[in-house]
Amino acid sequence: MGEPILSINNLTKTYALGLARRRYVKALDNISFKINKGEFVSLVGESGSGKTTLARIILRLTPPSSGEVIYKGKNVWSLSDEELRWYRKEVQGVFQDPYTSFNPFYKVDRALSVAVKKFLPGEDEHVVIRKVLESVRLNPDEVLGRYPHQLSGGQLQRIAIARALIPRPELLIADEYISMVDMSTRVDIVNLSRDLVDQYKMTIIMITHEMNMALYATDKMIVLFKGRIVEYGDTKKILKDPLHPYTQLMIEALPRIDKNIERKILQKTLDAQKKGLTESVRGCRFAYRCPFATERCFNEDPVLEEIDKDHYVACWLHNRR
Amino acid sequence: MARDIVSKAQDLRLYYILPNNIYVKAVDGVNIEIPRGGFLGLVGESGSGKTTLAEGLLYLIDPPMIKISGKIFYIRKREGSSTEYETIDLETLPQHRLDQLRGVELSLIPQYAMDALNPTMKIGSFIKDVARYHGRDVDEILNRALERFKLLGLPSDILNRYPHELSGGMRQRTVVGISTLLNPKFLVADEPVSNLDVVQQHIVIDFLTELVEKKIVETLLMVTHDLHLILEKSRYLLLMYGGHIVETGSKEEVWSEPLHPYTKMFLESIPPVGSRIEEKRIRGIPGNPPDLRYPPPGCRFHPRCPFAMDICRRKEPPEIEVRPGRKVKCWLFVDRKV
Amino acid sequence: MVSSFQRYIINKTATYIVLWFLAAFLNFLLPRIMPGDPIGRYLETLYNMGQGTTGGIVQVVPEAEKLRQQVIEQFGLDKPPYTQFFLWLINFLRGDWGYSLAFPNLPPVIDLVKQYLPPTLMLLIPSLVISWVVGNYLGAYMALKGGKVDKIGLSSMQFISLIPAYWLIIVLVFIFGVYYKILPVSGKPGYMIPSLSFDYIKALLYHWILPMTTITLIGIGGWSIGMRAYVIYQLNANYMKYSKALGLPQRVLGRYAFRNAIIPQFIAFAMSFGGLFAGNLLVEMVYGYPGMGSLLSMILGRLDIFGMQAIFTFTATMILVANYVADIMYGFLDPRIRRGITEVVE
Lengths: 321, 338, 346
Known about the structure:
heterotrimer; B: Rossmann fold
């Protein structure tokens, strides 16, 4: 595969909370991973996992407390002005709420033509826009000339993706981009992302809390829990054999039609939650919820270790050291 | 039969009136009977009118929502009788009688649970008010609240806290607790787990299921966009699309033999757990949901329906009762019945 | 460890001290850079005492330039500006507010304030309190009743609040002073010199009724419109919909709405308090009521820079104090500030 397109090295982000009683919360705690060109990667986590912070750091919207983001060999947080322009062209973001991504007072055409003027000066605006809309499987005649409120969430999110595609980026960061789209059209957005990866060799990082969609379509999966990576690797391997109890919990919790599916980890977690035990301060963050936790889990931080080829887990159950 | 039905709407039209005098036809000619007992689901996507219908069934109709036509009934056991039922027209009920029913027999977990609590009131004070104005023993209700909040995984000092001292997830669960505190007979839960993580989702759904199983809550109508969420626990489903009820039936029937093309395509649009895109590509429903300000003529689903016939574009389909309790609103089934 | 509420108070205090310095500086600066010739104007006043005529003294009296120099030296206006500012500021804080150029005998400004402030407070405090109480009650009533009561109430309150005060007092004077002759047509208690004597107060009270009524009526209009808007906002809040869905009766919902709507009104009340110290210029002038407004009009008219800087700084101080109190009160009234905004992490 050669050089990864994006490497995250020991990234930590600490937030200070509270006006008076100042507490420090680690939104991201020493995160490292690599992404290769042409991969569809999912970053799965629930609220509080730090997944949105990670997206913001990669997109240069929030500075990290420590650690590096390396894109094509360059540290993203120490780019020259010229490199920064290049980076802003190569790496694009798509966000959760399509209705706030567009100015409600302008037709959606404007957002697209602004992007063409900025990134592709000299090219025929009309042609570029129609082409890019077709590439996200929209009929240009149906959406051009309309205001955001005249379009559905799904249409608008596709236009947001189209806009992000205008500078012909290599890396697309999609932060919860399906969570506000109707259930019945969500899968199409994910399918579209898959095709962008397969056909144009794009790299997409899909940040989501929807385990289901991540398992369905992505090549690589990173599971975050309370600011740490608990499991990371080939999605198919994780689907077949989830190693970390938290990953197992996320998959276990997915709804099924059969009534009496056994949910061991979920049950244990529910019990722990009712006792008010939710998060351990030392050791594995998941220990209190974990049915398999041992003394060690409560005291020592597990290390992310490659258990199988392209399958990493941070859990004392699997750790050989 | 009155004993089998807890709530009923006839020819119900609930519109929102926009400042420019345009109507949003959120519920547009709905006839339904909500069966009595158990865990039921009202499923629809954004803009289907499900929240409007849910609030309408409790006669929570306030501007800008207005009732254009129709009747809303609540059916309950006549007091002092074990066999007789009475049908109450909620519209003609005097305000104070309606207030007496609300919270006690009819209750709502609102969609806006995150900010459903008075910001300047402690949770405990609000519960005291609810108990007091329904003539209950305040201490008994407070104790019950503590017990239930514990089941919902909430901290023990919760009664003494203000809403802003709770996280979003905690607020949502607090509202779940308060709405069920007086053991309502008919509970409408509108997206009660939308802002919760998976563990909390299961806490809330298990809590509600337990109330239903113990018959503390007789009928639970869960309103959701996420069919999978209620697939395990519910027994009966109502599906809504574009302001209409398009299909009703037991969960098993709807799941294994969906009738309406919308239901069918909706069920097929969600990747089953463990499926992979390389093996089988799941397709969403093509097209877009209708704009309820200007709904399409005929069947609301016809622009997206692969089976649409000429009549579907012209005339609103009738409701076909395939079996008792099993209904579909689609032209495809008109001949089959005859 | 300070609590978040203590920190809130400390932050507010620091902010207000900075604001006060800024205000004092502007009040020192502005009268000095405004167009006009304050010293010349004072010399005119002096000259006119003897002559009974008006006219540019500079042309009339040959030694005008010398006199002007004298005055400038006397008042220290030849010193560098920052020295003047700090000297003035220290004196102001000590209670030495300088001498007024608006009167030939150069009375101390603080004596003028002591003389004109009580009638103003006597006029404005009761009218503020009454209009606040009545206005809030009316506003809440309109909002809770809705329908016709609200429509008629709101439009009449809007009408009242929009009437210019000087016009209303003229109308009231015409009705009660000219037509029925039961109340005086002017606010000045005749020949009497303002003092704290019983007779003067009695006379003042008699002259107090009309301006008091005017200001109160107009105040009621404003307060009730504000309260109505706040109550309606509360009635549309989600917590209200939820309380209704739980069957709490209308009167309880009204109580919730009132309690939450009155918080900003308390704040506005406290803030309005500061404004009282400036008096009500138009009403006092039109009616000739001997309060701060009248004093201010004299000082402005005679380009009295010392009077201006002192009185403006005084009123600015009172406004800032009132706002400060309002901010602290807000902290007490709103649990979100009182109990601290804590991020709740589960």
